[in-house]
Structure formats: structure tokens, C-alpha cells
Amino acid sequence: MxxxxxxxxxxxxxxxxxxxxxxxxxxxxxxxxxxxxxVESLPAACALVxxxxxxxxxxxxxxxRVRAPSREFVDAFSDLGLFQDLMKMEFGK
Length: 93
Hints:
By secondary structure, the protein is of the alpha/beta class. It has helices spanning 13-25, 44-55, 71-79, 83-86; strands spanning 2-6, 31-35, 65-67, 90-92.
């Protein structure tokens, strides 16, 4: 199973909650890609959901992927001290 999750330009708390629900519903072996091209601002709630997802994946599960991360997407992880969690993901265009 493969799932692509598009992150909008300015997700809020409601979007973070929806993202959490979506990720919880996925089977552990799902291939997950976050499309981060449109991100203009990533609040802590969304970054924390993504970081927790990457951090708690089973070792046998595919690494989460990030497609076309905007600078703001990457900066949000750095600003929150979560850069090491971001580096647990694969990047692509």
C-alpha cells in the first residue's frame, strides 16, 4: 500500500489532527510520501505529528519519503530541534 499525503501551504491544528488520524489508520508496512512542495509555513503541531510518525515506524517498514520539501518545511523541523527526525526520511522530487 502506498499513500501520498499533500501538505497544504499553511496547515493549522485541524489539519494536524486530520494528519494524525490518517497516519494512525495506515498499516505499518505502508509506503508514505509527504508532498511538501506547497508548504509556506509548518506549525509545530504538524511537524511534531510527522516527526513522531518517522520516529516510531517499525524498523522493517519503509522510510517515509518527502517529495519536493519547501525551505519552510525543512526550517520548521530545524527550528523545533527535530532535524534528526527529518533526516530519518528519504527525499525526492
